[in-house]
Amino acid sequence: MTFYDLPESLNTDIENYEKLVNNYLSGAIDKNRFKAFRVPMGIYEQRKNDTYMMRIRLPGGNITPRQLANIAEIAGKYTAAPLHITTRQDMQIHSVSAADTVSIYRELQKIGLSTRGGGGNTVRNITGSPDAGYDPDEVFDITPYIQALTSRLIAEPDSWTLPRKFKIAFSGSHRDTGLASVNDLGFIAKMKDGRRGFSVYAAGGMGIKPQIGIKLLDFAGEDQVYNITRAVKNIFDKYGNRKDRHHARLRFLYQDSGDALFREKFSTEYIEVKNKNYAPLLINEIPLQSKNFLEIPLLLGDISMTEAAELASILIPCGERILRTGQNQNIIIYNLPPEKLGQLEQTLQRKGFKTGCKKISDRITACAGASTCRLGLCLSRNLLLSARSSLEQFTDTSGYLDDISIKISGCPNACGQHLIGSIGFFGAAKRHDGKSVPMYHVMIGGNIAEDNSRFGTKIGSIPAKNVPALLSEILQKTADAKKPGENFSSFVSRLGLSVFCDLLKKYETIPDYKQDKSFYFDWLDNREFSISEKLEGECAAGLFDLIDYYIDESKKFIRESLSADTDKRNQLIKNAVASAANSLLITKGLEPKNDQEAVLLFRDHFTGKHLDRSHGKTLDNYLIGGEISPAESENLLAAIEALYKSMDNSLRFPEITDSAAEKINTSGKIFRDFRGVACPMNFVKTKLVLETMKKGDLLEIQLDDGAPAENVPVSVKNEGHKIIDQRKTGGWWKIVIEKNI
Ligand code: SF4
Question: For 521-539, what is each residue's pLDDT tens digit?
């Protein structure tokens, strides 16, 4: 038995992939060309160079015990790394060589499995309620729809060439346990007038700029699942943004189009698709024999090859449709009568497997994080391991923690689903005392349910070191104050976010390096934390996240400044300028010690080179404590955003022309580089430039350290001009002069 049909085209895909691997290994093609074909095949390079991860598609998490045994056997020939269950119910094989990925691909194909579409701009693994078939609230079992849709979509060539990844999910009930409301396309089972169907959600998604899906259709008959999917896929294919991968997901198309136009595009496409009379999906429903289940918690979603083989051998005699993975990275055994399940539980416990997920420490999930994921900022798995032991004290005997989920992502991409966790964390970084500190943003109150899904609210950020302590404190507060039967989301609303913000405040402080070095190391890592080493990512998404983060912060400060009183407004505008300046420094490997240095470095590395010098005035005003108008900060941010958009894949920016660089701005500011010009010629040149300027105009000159930096400012002052700013940058000096005569 298999849970989806593999298309014939897979043979050609594998042959092509094999040629590509050989070409790559012989040096005939470079890494980037290899990557372009490899990633849509579901094969990612891990953080360790030339080590690969293969992501096996398991629709709705379904896998037969026999397939599990086969995977353990196949993978075991090539790697000793454990198998890993993802939050999208896939199963990953880690740490294999490029050459071995071809052999593994072929062997997986023989057992009806594939990694095709496990990555890249493709239709990804279709997920579903982990409790499909036995959820007491279930309208009907969504598993056959997931199977049929998977088989159809993976045979369509355009499923592999979309503008960006395309995620689909199904839920069997209003509890939306399949997370349909936060996928690009989601189906929630419904009955209407005795007919089976679905309410349909679209344009949802987590990660950067997350969005809860919009309800596209209140009800669509079950025979419309393919047509709707085809129509949404078509509009994504036609109108999705292929130029900017950071603005490419379906939710951005929705945001850019606006609700009315997006719906109109869908309706037009849907009519066209219906007119094509595609065959409806072939739904082959086999009712479950039993509604009982048993969950096996997996620490970090990992299961060793030996454990997987052992579990499979125990389960093979029990049936085929009895095993699946869940979004919480655990394994679920279902569809077995209670007495059989009871015996099985005892057998598994004897073999050393944990069963049941009553303890909160068994219900924390984390993405791969920076240990293997090339996009990650923080070591989310290590945090989970470290936090887990401090949570052992919280047993669930009174049930007050039953509905709490804790979710951790190593960066804002949200593979750890932090946005929908009752308590969520996502990795970040901050400069303090001249060094980088691993940080986590903290979210509270995420919730998933049909028409009631919401992302957690960000209540602040704390050093990674303090996360376990804060987590314990939040859980203790919950244990003390939550009412019997109250769910966590209502509890948060009743208490108010300020209570949680106050708890967080205790953990915000970062001590100086000398005071406590441990804050400058990520969990279970003996290397000092550094952001610049994260630049080498598969697509450096962690870097982009950091840039997006600073740009968003800058926007937030500008927004807040508009309604603030004068004193506060000036500070907020300065914060906006500093965040804007911070955003692009990482692209040049610069890690400023503080905001002042960030602005200075940004001015030195960007204005006149990549940005019009007119923005230098705003930055100068920041540096000398001058006033900056909201319009100036907005202009600077807009210019930085435009520059960011123009950045190429090598993180380079277009240079502005000499004439633009030399352009005198409206305030009369001009720049001259007199480094390498000896005294007194540097002063003479400065004087000549000043003579061409109007009173009040600014001149910024660059001078060598030593005599030039000592003599020229004194001579300029003697001439009657003002020195506005004078500071050393690297081995040379910047002097800002205001013409005063
Ligand atoms: S959330 Fe970030 S660190 Fe975690 S797996 Fe996704 S991209 Fe990697």
Answer: 999 999 999 876 554 443 3
| Residue 7 reports pLDDT greater than 60 | yes
The crossing angle, in degrees rounded to 10, of helices 614-624 and 595-606 is 160
Tell me: ipTM over 0.90.
Answer: yes
Structural domains present in the chain: 1-121+302-320+337-350 (3.90.480), 135-275 (3.30.413.10), 362-520 (3.30.413.10), 540-657 (1.20.120), 664-738 (3.30.110.40)
- Check if 375 has its Cβ closer than 6 Å to any atom of ligand 1: yes
**Measured from the CA of 409, which atom of ligand 1 is nearest?**
1
Measuring from atom 6 of ligand 1, which residue has the nearest CA?
415
CA distance 457 to 475: 17
Is 410 near ligand 1, meaning CB less than 6 Å away?
A: yes
Q: Which of 92, 380, 415, 546 to mutate to test the pocket of ligand 1 (most atoms within 8 A of CB)?
A: 415
CA of 445 to the centre of ligand 1 (A): 21
Type and span of the H or E element at 302: strand 302-303
Contacts of 629 (CB under 8 A, 6+ apart): 573
Residues 443 and 423: beta-carbon distance below 8 Å:
yes
Across 66-88, average pLDDT: 97
Q: Is 411 in the pocket of ligand 1 (CB under 6 A)?
A: yes
Question: Higher-confidence residue: 248 or 500?
Answer: 500
Residue 376 CB less than 6 A away from ligand 1? yes
Higher pLDDT residue, 512 or 642? 512
**How high is the pLDDT of residue 662?**
45
- Mean pLDDT of all residues in the chain? 89
Residue 546 has pLDDT above 80, yes or no: no
Which residues neighbour 469 within 8 Å (Cβ) at sequence distance 6 or greater? 390, 507
Distance CA 578, CA 562 (A): 17
Query: 398 CA to middle of ligand 1, Å?
Result: 34
Q: How far is CA 157 from CA 21, 41, 53, in A?
A: 21, 13, 23
| Ligand 1 center–CA 156 separation, angstroms | 28
Angle CA(19)–CA(20)–CA(26) in degrees, nearest 5? 90
For ligand 1, the distance from its centroid to the CA atom of residue 415, given in whole angstroms, is: 5
Beta-strand pair 698-704/670-673 = parallel
Select from 484, 483, 372, 465 the least CA-distant residue to 425: 465
Q: Could you identify the residue written with the tokens 């690297």? A: 730
- pLDDT tens sequence across 698-723: 888 888 888 888 889 988 888 889 99
Which residues, including other chains, have CB under 8 Å from residue 732's CB and lie 6 or more apart? 675, 702, 703, 704, 705, 709
Q: Which of 53, 367, 374 to mutate to test the pocket of ligand 1 (most atoms within 8 A of CB)?
A: 367
Q: Measured in angstroms, how far is the CA atom of residue 374 from the centroid of ligand 1?
A: 8
Task: Please give the pLDDT value at position 530.
Answer: 82
CA of 431 to the centre of ligand 1 (A): 21
